[in-house]
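Subject line: Sequence and fold of a protein, written as C-alpha cells
Body of memo: The sequence and its C-alpha cells, given next.
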Amino acid sequence: MNFLSVWKKIILVLLLASVCKAQFMDEFDKSTIEGWFVLTGDGSAELKFIPRNGYATMLVDASRDKYNVYWTLIKRDVTKWLDLTKFAAHTRYQLRVEARVRLHNAPRRLNFMVNTNRTTNYHIDLMEFDIPDTTNWHVISMTTKKFDARPGDTVYVQMAATDFGPGKYYVDIDYYRADIVDVNEAGPDKGNCVPYHPTIPDMNTFSEHLPVFQDCIINSEFPDVNFNDYHLKKVNEAVPVLKIASNQWAVLRWDFSKYTDAKSDVEGILELTTHSVYIGGNYDEAFGKDFGMEFDKVRVIEILNGDHFWNQETVTYNSLTEGKEYEEVFNSQMVYDFEVNTKPGGKNYITISRPVMQRLIAGITKGLLLRPLGAVDASFYATEYENGNGSAKLHFGIKDDK
C-alpha cells in the first residue's frame, strides 16, 4: 500500500469520526450523575437515577402506588451543545435523541420527549418504544417532525417510564445522545416505535377482520365461578354481555392459526360494541385536573401467561391464572386506556400497537383483558349475541413478503 493510500484511509477515518460524534452525549461513565434531574407525577411512584459501572439505572419504586397511572422521567438541559439557528434556517433540520436501554421487566414501553421552555403541547414530540425482552440492550431513537426551538430557548430532552405496575422496576441506560440532524441524510429511527394515540383509520383500509374466538368474564371475588352465561335479563329476552366492573373483567382470545409466520405491517384496531355504560365521579376535585383526567376509562391489557387455550364455557379467574400472581399473567403496563362510547350500540375503536399485534399473531400474547380504570361499569356485546353480531373484532394488516 503506497503512502497516498494510507493518508486517504486516515483522512476517511477522521471524517467518519467527526460525522458520528454526538453534539450531546452522556455515556454515564462517571461515579456521579451530572446534569440530569428526576420528575414524577399522577400517583405515588418514586424515582432514583443511579450511576452503575459504565451505565445508569432508573429505579422506579411504585410499590405504594394505588392506581398505576403514574409517570416517572429523567430530564436535562442540552441547549449549550446545540446550534439552534439551524432550526430557523430550514425545516430539514430536526432534533434526534437516541439511547441504548435494557429493561428488567418486559414487554414494556419507554418514551422519549423533547421540549423547550415555551412548549405547551407536550405530545407533539413524543414517541413510545416497545421493549420486548430483558436479555438484550436495545437502541431506540426519535427524530422530531417540526421542532419549535429558536435561539434563546432552553431545550430539554427526557426519557420516561409510565404505568409500569405496582412494584419496583429498573431501566438501564448505556448512553443518551442528542443531535441536530439533516432529515434527508439521517436515515430512519431505531427501535419498535409506538406512536402516541395515532388517528383511527377507516376499517376498510385493513386487509384482515378477525372476530373474537373466545370471550368471557372473570371475577376475582368469585375466582372459581364461570360466568359465560352472564346476561342482561329483559322481559322477553336475555342479552349476553361482557360486563366489566371493579373486580369483574372481560377476557378475549382470537384464533390466529391461519396466520402462522405472518408479520403485522401496521397498528391494529380492537373493535368493541357498547351495550350500556354507568359512569361518573368528580375525579378532578379529588385528585386535581391532570391526575383526575386519567380516570373513567377502560384499560386494554395483554395476557402473557396462564392457560393459553382457555374456553369460554369453563374459564374462571383461577383456571386462567393457574395459581400465578396477577403480574405474572397480565402485563402490568396497559396497551391502551380508552373512553367508552356511551351510546348503546356505539362502536369503540382502540389502537393495538404493531408490536402488540405481532405478539398476538405469534401467540406470545395469549389474548386481551379489559378492566376499568375508575368507577366504571361498562357492558359490551358478547359472542352469543345474535350469532356474534356486535362481538369484539380485530382489524389488522399483514405484510406481503412476495
